[in-house]
Amino acid sequence: MKRPAFDDIYMELAVNLARRSHCIKRHVGAVLTKDTRIISIGYNGPPSGTHNCDEEWPDIGCPRDSKGGCSLAIHAEQNAILYAVKNKTSVEGATLYVTLSPCLACARIIYSMKIERVIYLNSYAEHKGLSSDEGVDFLKKFGVEVVRYGGQLQNVTHMI
């Protein structure tokens, strides 16, 4: 039996975590690793203790903010980073696996937290018909290694 690569294992987990999302618009999962160990996980959705969008607003999702984005959602990357920091786990030098390329706001956080590597599955820009992924461009400009996942997802329960 061939042993799977860590990149495959962690991306498969990120895809499966995305299934936990309560977001009506998009499901995103993230896995934060360091030295081949998982240090945190996350998926997009509202802060704990607030409304679950798919339960409170099942037809339209949560209200929009002034820029047209979800007014409640915390991005998967943010959830993974926040949980690690809340539990006093250093994320410096970590690798982040995420099912959707980071937005610019998440990219700033990723850079500020000194995460060294980001591997993403799907391009937000491609999904939205934009010319480039601002978050990816930002991270690359400031020396963070960013790679689009190109492996094989063998054990994914459901692709999102």
Automatic annotation (TrEMBL):
Give the species this sequence originates from.
Chryseosolibacter histidini
Key word Secreted present in the record? no
Q: Which Pfam families does the entry link to?
A: dCMP_cyt_deam_1
- Binding positions for Zn(2+)? 75, 103, 106
Q: Say which domain of life the source belongs to.
A: Bacteria
Family from the record: Belongs to the cytidine and deoxycytidylate deaminase family.
**Residues annotated as catalytic:** 77
**Where do transmembrane segments lie in this chain?**
none
Q: Which GO terms describe its molecular function?
A: dCMP deaminase activity; zinc ion binding
Enumerate the CDD domains for this protein.
deoxycytidylate_deaminase (cd01286)
GO CC, sorted alphabetically, is: cytoplasm
The alphabetized UniProt keywords are:
Hydrolase, Metal-binding, Zinc
One BP term from GO: pyrimidine nucleotide metabolic process
Name-wise, this protein is: dCMP deaminase family protein
Its taxonomic placement starts with: Bacteria, Pseudomonadati, Bacteroidota, Cytophagia, Cytophagales
| PROSITE patterns per the UniProt record, alphabetical | CYT_DCMP_DEAMINASES_1, CYT_DCMP_DEAMINASES_2
Q: Which residues form the CMP/dCMP-type deaminase domain?
A: 5-132
**Cofactor section:** Zn(2+)
